[in-house]
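Aim 2 progress update. The chain analyzed this quarter is reproduced below.
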Amino acid sequence: MTEPSELVGVAERRLDFLERLAAEPLRKHELVDALGHSRSTVNRAIDELEAAGLVAGETDGYRTTLSGRLLAAAYREFLTVADDLAAAGDVLDPLGADVDVDPAVLRGAETYRAAAPDPYRPLEVLDEALANADSVAAALPAFPYPRIAERLRRAAAGGGTVDLTLADRAYRHAAERFADDLGAVARRDDCRVAAVDAVDAGVVAADGTALLLTFDDAGTLHGAAASTEPEAVAWAETKVRELVDRGRDVGEALAAMDRSAAGRGAGDRVEGASDRAETEESDDSVDEGGGEASDRADRDAGADGRRASAAGGLFGRIGSGDDGRRALSAQGFHAVDADRLSGDPDPYGPLRATASFPEVDAGYVLDRTTVRDGDRRSIAGLLVDGLAEARDHALVGPPGSGKSTVCRCVAVEWFRSGCGPVTYRPSDGGDPFSATERLRERVTEGDGHHLVVVEDAVYPDAAEAVGVARELADRDDVSFLFDAREEPYDDPNGLPLSPADLRYRREMATVRMPRLDEREVERFVDHVADRTGSAPAADPAALLADVRRADDERVGELLALVHRLVRATGDGASVVRVGEGSAGGASEPGTDANDATAGRDGAGPESGLEAAVAEAVREARNRPPPTADVAVLVNLLNVAGVADSRTLAYALVDGPNGSGGPETGTGTDGDESPTVDEVRRALDRLVGSALVRSGDGEYRAVHDEWSVLFLERLVEREPGPVVARRVGRAVSRVLALADDPARRARVRRAVGGDEPTVNRIERDPSAWAAETVRAVYGVGRRYPRLAPLYGRVRCAWIELPDACPDDLRNRPPEWVARMYVEAGDLDGARAALDAWRPADEAGAAERQRGYGDVARRRGEYDAARERYERAEELFAAAGDRGGLAAAIRGRAQAAHFDGDYEVAYEAASRAYAIAAEVGDPIARAKALMDAGNALDSLDGTDAVLDHYRVAGDLFRAYDDTHGEANVRANLAVALRRRGDLDAAERTARRALDGYRTVGDEHREAISLLNLAAVAEQRGAVGEAVAHASEARATAERIGSDMYEAFALSHLGSAAHLAGDLDRAERFLTAALDGLDRLGADTRCAMVTAILVEVAIDDGDLPEAARRIERTASLLEDHVGRKRLAELDRIRGRLALARGDGDAAAAALTDAVAAARTGGFTQVEAQALAALGAAEAERGDTAAAAERLIAALDLAHRIGSARAIVSAADRLADLLSVSVADSGPIDREALTAVLREAPPEPIPAESAADPAAYRAVADRWRVDGDGVAVAYPALG
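Predicted C-alpha cells:
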C-alpha cells in the first residue's frame, strides 16, 4: 500500500496527467501530444501513477481511477487555497492564528491594502459593494467610515434584508452616532441587529460580493479581500448569521433610541438658541484643541474636539416639524423662507456678530466684492451665477473673513429671486449631521432649483453633506454651497471625507475670500455711514493699514475692521467720530459718548482690536456691579459654547433679596448678590461688545475670539486672586442651578415665565452639570493662558454642585495644574501640583506625571525621569493604559533632551504600542512624533518625515492645534536639516502661530529659535539675532532658564557668523554657564563645540583643543550621528589649523560619512568644505576639487552661508595663485576639473575664474563691521 505522503508526492509531480486523464482516456503517444512531454517522461509518469493506483490501463488508453480523480481534485483545491492565501497575505497580517476564517471567503479574491499608492481603495471597495445592495449581511469590529450606517438604512428602506453584528465597542459607538440610521434598520421586519463581545475580522456579504475586512490594533481598516465566488458569498452569509444568532439582540434598543431622537419636539428648543445657530458666524468657533492637555482628561472628553454643546445635546438643540424633517431640524438644517427673513433687523447687528437673515434681507450687510477680469464683482452674485448652472461650490477663507455672511447673502438672494427653495445649515447648528437620506429626499422632492448651504463643511459635524452633494451631482435642479476654513480645506489629509468625497472636492468650484483692499474698506466705511446716518469714520487707507497691524494677526482682517467701525459709530443714533466712540460701541443711556473713553488717551480705531477689547474690559470693571461679573460670565460661556447666556446670567441673583428691590442683598455664598434689575441693566451695557441684540429683544453672542481676547485682558488687568474669585463666584452660582429648585424658580421669574434651558436642567441635573463643568474648564484647557481664571488649586473658587457626577469631582485640580504646565507658568504648575490631593491611584499617577513635565521643562532631566517612572508604576497599578502611555512618552522626551536617543526611541515605540492597543489616536500621534524626534537625532532618514506626516494627520483629524503645532515645530527642524529653508521657515511660523493661539510660551520660544536657526543658516544675522532676542525675552518672562540658555547660544552663534568673536565668546559662555547649572550635558556640548570654532578663528589653538576634549567628555555615551559628525568636523578643523593635513582629512572624512548617513546636510556641507581644504593641504588636487565642488553644490542647495563662503573662498584662493606658487596643488589640473564639472552656482564659462568664486563668497559673506545688528544686553 502506498503511503499517504508518497501519494501526495505523486499527485504533486503528476497532477497534469491525473487531470488530463480524468477527462478522457488517452494512449501514451496521445499524452505526448496533449501535454507536450517527451515519450520517456510519459512512460515514467504512467508507471508511477499505475504503481500508486491512481491511473489504470484500459482498451482505449489510460484513465484516472476514482482515487486518482479524488486526489487530483483535492490537491488542486489545496493549490487554489495556497494561491488565495499567498495573494491575501498582507491583508491577513493583523489576524491572530485562532481567528475563525474559512479559506472559501478568499476564493478568487481581489485584495486591497490601505497603503500607498491608494490607501483609500479598501474603503472604496466596501462602499461600492454596499452602495446599491438589496441584501446585506455584515459583522464588524468597528465602523471604518460613517456612511456604512446610511448604506444599511437604504438597503433596509428599499425592502432588502440586513443582518448586522457589531462588536460591543462598535455598537456603543453606533448607538451614539448612528442611532437614527441603525434604528430605522432595526424596525424593519426582515432585518436583525446584534452585539457580541468581539468580532475578530470584518465579514460582509452584499448581494453577490463577499468581503473579508481586517483592522489594525487602532481600529483602522488595514485591508480588504473581495470575492464574487458563490462559495465565498455563502460562507460570509453563514458566518454573519451565526454571529447574529449567537449575539444579543440590540435592535429594539436602537429602534427606541431612534424614536426618542425623532420625538424631540418644539418644547426642547432653547430660547435664543436658534438666534445663535442662525447668526453666529461659522468662523467664530475655535475648533482647535488647546494645550497638550492631560491625556487622562482627553480620554474622558472623547474624540470630538469641538464644543461640548455640539456633542451633548443639552445646549441649544433645535427640534420641530414633521417626522420627515425633524432629524434635519435637530441636525441644524432649516429653510430660508419668508418666516426666516421676518423679524426686526438691527443695522448695527452685522457689525458685532454674523448677520441674521433678517439683517441680510434688509440690506444691512455690505455686498462683498472681488476683482474679476479687471472689474469689481459681487462675490455673492458670482456664486449665485455658478450655482444656477448646477455646479457645486466651496467658499474658502481664513477665520473672520466673512464667509458665513456671504453664504447668507447667497441664500437670501436665491430665495428672493425665485430661483427655488433654500435649505441652510449654520455652523454649530445642531447635532452632527448623519440624516443623509432625509436631506436627499428633501432637496429632490420639491419644485424649483434647490440650494443647500452648509457652513463649516470641513468639520465632522457637517462633512456628510459633501457625500450627498456628490451623489446628486448629476442633477440640474440641486446645488450645494459649502463654507470652509482655508487651512483644513487645503490639506486633504486632514479632511473628514470619504475617498470618493475627497475626489469630488476637487471637482467642486472653489471660490476664495479675497483680502481686504483699500477700495473694499472704503465701501465698508460708506456702507456703515449710509446705514447708520453717520459721517464716514476714517480714511480707508489708514484703516486698512491699522487692521493689518501685527497685533491683529490672530483674528481676521474683517473682524478687526468691523470692530473699528463699531467704535467709530457708537450705538444707535448717538454717532461719534474716530477717537470719540466708546470702547465697546455701547454707551450707557443718558451718558455722553465721550465718557466712554475717559482715562485713556488716543482711543479710536487706530488703537487696534486688542486695544479696543482691553478698553471694553476697563469699561466693564468701572461700571456699577454686577457689570464685570456678568461680562466675565457671558464671555466665558461664549468661549465654552454654552448657549443662552442671558438666561444663565440671572443665576447670579442669589439670596432672598435677589428677586428685585432697590438694594443689593447677600447671597448664600456670603458674597453680594445683585438684583434682577441690576443683571438686566448689566446685560444691556454689554450690548455692542460681548452681546448683540436680536430683533426679538433677545441677544446673540459675538465672535468667540473677541471673548477670548476679553478674558485675556481681564487676566492682565486684575490680580490673579481677584479674577479667580470673580469667575468662581459667577460659575458656582450657575452650576448651583443643578442642585437648587429655588434658584431655578428665581431664574424663571427673572426671564418672565417658563424657560427651556431651566427645563432641561431639571430633567437631568447630573448630565447638565457634567457637561457644563467640562465646557467651562475646557476653556482653560484649550487656552492655557487663561489658567488664572481658575485660581490656584489651594484656593479654588469654583464650587461643583452635588449633582456633578463623582468621576468629575476630582478632575478640576488635575485640569488646572495641566493648564499652568501648558501655559509655561512652572511656578504656578508646581504650586497647583503641591496643593492637589488626588483621590485615587490614577490621580496620583497624573500628579507625578505633572511633576515630571515641570522638571523636564526646567531642564532637570534626571528628576523628570524619576517622576515619570513613578507615574508609570502608579498608572500600571491603576490599570490605566492610556496614562501609562503618556508617562512613558514623558520619559522618552526627557531621555531625548538628555541625549539618550536610543532610550527615547524605545520608550516612544512602547508608548505607541500601548496607545494603539487602547485606541487613542492622539496618544498615537504624540508617540509617533516622539519616535520621529529620536530617529531624527539617530539617523535622520526619511522615516522621520513619515512619522511626522502621520502624526500631523492624526492631530488635524482631531482638531488638536497644540499637537499639530508640536509636529510643525519638529518638522521645521527636520526640513532645515534637509536644506529646504523656505519650507522650514513656513512650517516654523505656522507652529509659532499655533503656540500663540493656545498660549504655550515655552514652545513659542522654541519656534522663535527655530526661525533664528533658519535665518542664521542663510546668513541673515540681523534676523537671527531678532528672533533669538525675542525668544530670550520670552524665556525670561516665563522663568525658563533652559530656553534662556538656548537663546544665548543662538545669539553667540550668530555673533560668530558675523565675525564678532568677543561678543560670541561672551554669549556662548553665558549660555554654557546656564546649561551647566541645569546639568544638561549634551546641550553644553553643543555650546562648547561652537566655542571650539571661536577659539580656532581667534588663533587660540590650545584653548580649542581643551574645548574639544570637554565636548567629547560631555557627550560620553550620548553621541548620535549629528554630534559625532560635529565632533569630528571640529577636530578636523583644529588639525587643519595646526597644518596636519592627514589628521584633518581623516577626521573630516569621518565627519562627512556620519553627517551623510544621518542626513545632517549643514554639517556635511561644512565638513566637505573643510575636507577640500585639507586635501589641498595634502596636495591631492583631484580630491580637493571634488570635495570643494561637492561642498559648494550642497551648500548652495541648502542655503548654508558658512559652507558657501568657506568653499568658494578656498577655491578662489587656489585659483588665484600662480602655477609656480601653487605649492602641492596642480593648478592646471584643478582648472581642468572645474571646467569639466563646475559647481552649481558658478557659470560654466567662469569655472576657472577666481573672481567668480570670490563674488559668490562675497554675496553670502556676513560682514561683521557692516551689519547693523541690535544685540540684547548681556546680564
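The chain has 60 helices and 22 strands. The chain has a mean pLDDT of 79. These observations will guide the mutagenesis experiments scheduled for the next reporting period.
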